[in-house]
Amino acid sequence: xxxxxxxxxxxxxxxxxxxxxxxxxxxxxxxxxxxxxxxxxxxxxxxxxxxxxxxxxxxxxxxxxxxxxxxxxxxxxxxxxxxxxxxxxxxxxxxxxxxxxxxxxxxxxxxxxxxxxxxxxxxxxxxxxxxxxxxxxxxxxxxxxxxxxxxxxxxxxxxxxxxxxxxxxxxxxxxxxxxxxxxxxxxxxxxxxxxxxxxxxxxxxxxxxxxxxxxxxxxxxxxxxxxxxxxxxxxxxxxxxxxxxxxxxxxxxxxxxxxxxxxxxxxxxxxxxxxxxxxx
Amino acid sequence: xxxxxxxxxxxxxxxxxxxxxxxxxxxxxxxxxxxxxxxxxxxxxxxxxxxxxxxxxxxxxxxxxxxxxxxxxxxxxxxxxxxxxxxxxxxxxxxxxxxxxxxxxxxxxxxxxxxxxxxxxxxxxxxxxxxxxxxxxxxxxxxxxxxxxxxxxxxxxxxxxxxxxxxxxxxxxxxxxxxxxxxxxxxxxxxxxxxxxxxxxxxxxxxxxxxxxxxxxxxxxxxxxxxxxxxxxxxxxxxxxxxxxxxxxxxxxxxxxx
Lengths: 280, 258
Hints:
The complex is a heterodimer of chains A (280) and B (258).
Chain A (H helix, E strand, L loop, with lengths): L11 H4 L3 E13 L4 E13 L3 E5 L6 H8 L7 E6 L2 E2 L7 E4 L3 H4 L6 H12 L4 H14 L15 H14 L4 E5 L7 H18 L2 E5 L3 H7 L2 E6 L4 E7 L10 H4 L1 H16 L9
Parallel strand pairs in A: 3-8, 3-9, 6-7, 7-8
Antiparallel strand pairs in A: 1-2, 1-4, 4-5, 9-10
Helix pairs in contact in A: 4-5, 4-6, 5-6, 6-7, 8-10
Chain B lengths: L2 H26 L9 H48 L1 H16 L6 H8 L3 H25 L3 H9 L4 H38 L5 H10 L3 H29 L1 H6 L6
Helix pairs in contact in B: 2-3, 2-5, 2-7, 2-8, 2-9, 3-5, 4-5, 5-7, 7-8, 7-9, 8-9
């Protein structure tokens, strides 16, 4: 699916390998009242096809900015993001984003089924019946087949985030982007949702990029962890998670390898300078 | 009795009590030219409005309200969505629209009489001039103030223009649009009566002025009752519409009656 390499000789280097998402020289500067704030600079990152990559970093490190650039919601100030070799300039098809704030990202005026079918309707590839079937399948996959006719606000927080996940996977995306998706639910629900996402990932064979501030979560769920750091932010460290692919809340988290990895990630997050931004 | 049924009883009981009080007190008072007893008003009401006056005066008035209100709501929402979607347009035109909204549209009746005559077109024009701006302002403010998460979600899921308008922009703005529509409905009722009183050959406003010319106090009171009934019925109808359209909004904010 990559562009022919002769088409863009200057991009030959970038398109090599099986990167699903290729971020090169990415910089993002927010222009403020006489004071520019550089959030990301010269950031390099490849997301491999089929992998589960977590992005961690201290708060304010620009994790969400990075994800928004990947999602095509934020134009980079310099550098580029490529999805399957195509330059990302607006939200690409084949990429679904799950927001932290499910309460605002799900539409309260639509029932659960309406929320899940709406993007399919706009895609225009399925008939009304097929859309309904696809949405019900996705709701079944997140265990909410019975909630189709309810409004999102009639459900608990965890269930609402599951509806958001169903909406994302109903589109059959190749890449699932998640922005701190479990930050506003309780610990037990959080563990359940983590396992649900791991299941979905296996079932749908989707590439996942997860932004989280929770180091344990990043190690538990991922194949690789990218630690953001520095001011302005780049990728400070890429850590391979060499744990068995089958993950389990109890056994995985008590493995010596897990403890080592979380220490490594935590150290990487902590050791980076997180000084207050000087007045520029 | 539950709290709910007490409220229900009061809702119907109080108006009945007020009418009963009016009836008996006006009976007991010495006869007055300006404040005829309710018994006489009721007799005049039956003679005037049941049912000759319905076709002669009520239908023209209601037609004017419905047409002017429809133009205001449909046009107001359409213009409001465009203004709200283009921030520059919104900022430039806001003061102009605010000016027109602040203008008492009864002041424009004389101009409209010259422009479009004294018929239905004039009434519709006056009602529209009164009601349009409120709908525009409420719609454009709601659309311009859309939740960025909602906007990001629509973009991220690549919603088409029409889908976004019908399933995101309009429903998201609907609570505020409905507020504007409610105000606009009141303005429509007021202005149609004003226009009919100023110049018209039909309608309840015309009937009122005609009764005044003939010193028919009882007739005027009966016309006043008729206007009250129309206003009350329309606001009830609106409440019904509002409860249906904004059921999700009530539920979201903890007043679910689903």
